[in-house]
Write a structure and sequence with these properties.
An 11-stranded mixed sheet has the order 1-8-2-3-7-4-6-5-9-10-11, with helices on both faces. It has a 4-stranded parallel sheet with strand order 12-15-13-14, with helices on both faces. The protein is α/β, with parallel strands linked by helices and 343 residues long. Helix 1 (21-28) packs across helix 6 and helix 10 packs parallel to helix 11 (327-338). The chain is 31% helix and 19% strand. It binds threonylcarbamoyladenylate (TXA) and magnesium ion. The site of threonylcarbamoyladenylate (TXA) has 29 residues, from strand 5, strand 6 and strand 10.
């Protein structure tokens, strides 16, 4: 951890959130602040300030053709940055905002050009995390916030994770403890006649489809998603290699065979196991994601455990697939990407 970095500890359940005026002012005046949302920690910059957004890309070493999500705290902010709000977006906003749903709109170019990476569209979400909401409200500007990690690495779910990669490089880290959901928001394009899921998250797709009354495309499987700009094949990655073992009757034996084969080559092997099989695995470098049916818990644990195994010096992590339903679908999407097998 960097000693230079200013860290502000805030209890998200506390009544007095006035301490958040300082990070809000830093962002409003062009600085960079990492803060928790309900999904992962974001690195926030004033979305109307081209220089601040440029510095954000530079600090993350993020490719300039990978657009950012703009975070808002009220609907009036949305209307100021988009060309129109389609009916379906009104309905989805009523049902899912504030919350972990990002929608893509046609942009009116009010936000800095870099935010949209040269596209005609802009991604917007209204987070439900109390700290995030309060910072946006007090800053009174829309806030562009990618996950607060170096480009291509695992998203942070605690302030410690942020400090490991960005400590000393940004203006403040707001520490609000572990994030609830643990993986990034669902990204959904609402500009066309059908709705397209560009990134699965914790929003239930069947419910989304029912509420919107629209066909939802792009959810058939983790590798079938349309390539969103900046949606690179290897993403959300630990430093070491990652291998995903598919679900099936021989799943546990498959993990054990692979574990032995890599160990015999002298490699240090970590296992990211499901609760069902964890007791069968012969290694100290073991993390238990959760029961394979419990997508919520697996999502909450995923990134912290990938980081943990990485830090223990594993050369390779063998990860068991979980049930690819509801939130398990998003967990599998991130696991495939971390393994370099995403779309
Ligand atoms: O949960 C989250 O969404 C977190 C927290 C901090 O809010 N943020 C996050 O941001 O995950 P980031 O930058 O790591 O991911 C943004 C995703 C990328 O996959 C990007 O391609 C997509 O959103 N995106 C942004 N603008 C887009 C646009 N105009 N069209 C299509 N995809 C877009
Ligand atoms: Mg990210």
């Amino acid at each position: 951890m960097s000693s230079k970095q200013e860290v502000l500890r805030v209890d998200p359940l506390g009544k007095d959130l006035s301490a958040l005026q300082k990070p809000a002012d830093i962002i409003k005046n062009g600085g960079l602040v990492a803060f928790p949302t309900e999904t992962v920690y974001g690195l926030g910059a004033n979305a109307l300030d081209e220089r601040a957004v440029k510095r954000l890309f530079k600090v993350k070493k993020r490719s300039l053709n990978d657009p950012l999500i703009v975070h808002i705290s009220e609907m009036s902010q949305l209307r100021r940055i988009v060309l129109e709000v389609p009916n379906v977006a009104e309905i989805l906003a009523d049902n899912f905002w504030p919350g972990p749903l990002t929608m893509i709109f046609n942009s009116n170019r009010a936000v800095a050009d870099l935010v949209s990476a040269g596209l005609d569209t802009v991604a917007v979400r209204m987070p439900s995390g109390k700290i995030a909401q309060e910072i946006i409200r007090r800053a009174s500007v829309p806030i562009a916030a990618p996950s607060a990690n170096m480009f291509g690495r695992v998203s942070p779910t605690s302030a410690e994770h942020v400090l490991e990669e960005l400590g000393g490089k940004i203006d403040m880290v707001v520490d609000g403890g572990r994030t609830d959901i643990g993986i990034e928001s669902t990204v959904c394009d609402v500009t066309g006649s059908s709705m397209e899921i560009l990134r699965p998250g914790s929003v239930d797709i069947d419910f989304l489809s029912k509420i919107s009354g629209k066909d939802v495309v792009g959810v058939k499987g983790p590798t079938k998603l349309r390539r969103s700009p900046g949606n690179f094949p290897r993403h959300y990655s630990p430093r070491c290699e990652l291998l995903v073992v598919e679900r099936g009757p021989d799943q546990a034996n498959d993990v054990i065979d692979k574990y032995r084969a890599f160990s015999e080559k002298g490699m240090s092997v970590g296992i990211l196991a499901t609760r069902e099989h964890a007791d069968m695995f012969p290694t100290e470098n073991l993390c238990v994601l959760g029961p394979s049916e419990n997508g919520e818990l697996c999502a909450r644990n995923l990134y912290a455990m990938l980081r943990d195994l990485d830090k223990r010096g594993c050369d390779i992590i063998i990860a068991e697939a979980v049930k690819s339903k509801k939130m398990g679908l998003a967990v599998m999407n991130r696991l495939y990407k971390a393994a370099g097998r995403g779309s």
